[in-house]
Design a protein that fits this description.
Length: about 140
């Protein structure tokens, strides 16, 4: 069984994720680039000018899917993270984000009415999967964090 530390390491090594939200009974899925994961959570960002920020405010429950295709079908790996997002309002974190991802300056110049919306999943469940666990999900307990 994986530890939450190994799950965070996997997420940091495979930061492109699929993030699902829902509006009413309709799921919405999009690819996202996770910013980072550490002991305080899995960190992401979007802009308030996008529908995603409204979806997250209206229903903070999400699921993430991190994927590593490996060398083919037999070596694929995946981590699913389920939880509720928390908006993070921290000026030093905002400054670090703009330092780490300077291209965001251009985005917000093009959309000056938008603001950064930083969020994290700090608590939830993580489920590791690879082909050795195929068809055994019910026998593999999730990691609660």
């Amino acid at each position: 069984m994986k530890t939450i530390e190994e799950i965070r390491e996997f997420a940091n090594q495979n930061p492109t994720t699929w993030l699902s939200t829902s509006v009413g009974d309709q799921p919405h899925l999009r690819a996202m680039a996770m910013w980072f994961a550490d002991e305080s959570g899995f960190y992401f960002h979007t802009g308030t000018q996008k529908r995603l920020s409204v979806q997250l405010k209206n229903n903070p429950k999400v699921e993430l899917g991190f994927f590593n295709p490996g060398d083919g079908m037999g070596s694929m790996q995946m981590v699913r993270v389920t939880g509720k997002i928390e908006q993070v309002k921290d000026e030093s974190l905002r400054e670090k984000l703009l330092e780490d991802r300077p291209w965001l300056h251009d985005v917000f110049k093009a959309f000056p009415d938008g603001e950064l919306f930083i969020f994290r999943i700090a608590h939830g469940e993580a489920q590791y999967w690879d082909m050795s666990l195929n068809c055994r999900e019910k026998d593999t307990p999730p990691i609660v964090f």
